[in-house]
Amino acid sequence: MPLHGISMGYTLTDGKAHTRKKIQYYEMLGSRAIWTDGWNAVAWHKPGSSWDEDSWELYNTDKDFTQANDLAAQNPKKLAALEKQWWIEAKKYDVLPLDDRRYERVADPSRPVAAMTKDEYTFYPGTSIVHPLALPTLLGREHTITAIVDVPEGNADGVLACSGGEFGGWSLFIHNGKLHYAHNHLKIAEYLVSTDKPVSAGKHQLSVKFTPTGKSLKPDIFTGDVVLSIDDQPVGEAKGIKMASQYSSVTGYGLLVGRNTGTPVSHLYKPPFTFPGNIEKVSIKVNPKVNL
């Protein structure tokens, strides 16, 4: 499969080499730009408005790197040529048709994802990280995460399952022998639910249930209550935890079983904090009837 663009390998041996790139187009959510030979034309697009209403700006980036001086009125021919070139590049690289939708594109049911709608999902240890778009939607929905494990004698500390990282997500883990559930709300607050006593050695069902109780649009968050259980017996709870409406695009990390690579969801441990016992499976049950 041919790759678009120009290799930057030559710059590794010659830091003063002049760029070999002749042209570069840009498009995101309808906003557009094109650079060529030191000239940059840009058009910011307001979502939902007509493309004909977009106003193009023109900058000479060789002389005005910060793009503070708009030359559109002084050089309309150059601007028109760049705008025409943008459409050529857009057609060449399959940018068209333009689409300025945001959340609708992410939530498009025709997008191929692995997490087809069902009541329960099962994950196993040893699997690679599962991308957020291949996971069931948990934010704002009632759900229960259950790990069926064999807790070893002695040191049993480690992550059973987690999703996310430093900037948001959740983690179900054992630390100092006790079961914990941490919910990292965009690094603004870390909500922690813990058992009073250590988890005994042997086979157990260790779970956490989230029940949504409210939703706010500004800021865009959910609130809810959490119950931590061992073998279906409640052993800890927290009320009013905050959950962001989106995490995947911010944190960049998906689901992991038995470890937390990358950055930690909770600073009670350091990655990868691998669970030393045996994990049979991790199941996620989603109640479609309770959804804010």
What does this 3D model show about the protein?
The protein has 292 residues and is mostly beta strands. It has two domains: 9-106, Arylsulfatase, C-terminal domain, CATH 3.30.1120; 120-291, Jelly Rolls (Sandwich), CATH 2.60.120.200. The chain is 9% helix and 43% strand. The chain contains three helices and 15 strands. A hairpin with a 2-residue loop joins strand 12 and strand 13. The longest helix is centred in the first third of the chain and has 17 residues, at 76-92. It is elongated. 25% of the residues are buried.
Which key features would you list for this structure?
292 residues; mainly beta; Arylsulfatase, C-terminal domain; Jelly Rolls; 3 helices; 15 strands; 9% helix; elongated
In angstroms, what is the radius of gyration? Answer: 25 Å
Query: What order do the strands of the largest sheet run in, or round the barrel if closed?
Result: 5-15-6-11-12-13
Q: With helices defined by DSSP (H or I, 4 residues minimum), what is the helix count?
A: 3
What does the largest sheet look like? 6 strands, antiparallel
Residue-averaged pLDDT = 89
Kindly give the count of domains: 2
What's the CATH architecture of the largest domain?
A: Sandwich
Strand segment count: 15
CATH domain topology of the largest domain: Jelly Rolls
Distance between the termini: 44 Å
What share of the residues lie within helices?
Answer: under 10%
CATH C-level category of the largest domain: Mainly Beta
- Helix/strand-derived category reads mainly beta
- Shape call: elongated
Order of helices and strands: EEEEHHEEEEEEEEEHEE
The poorly predicted ranges are none
Beta-strand proportion? 35-45%
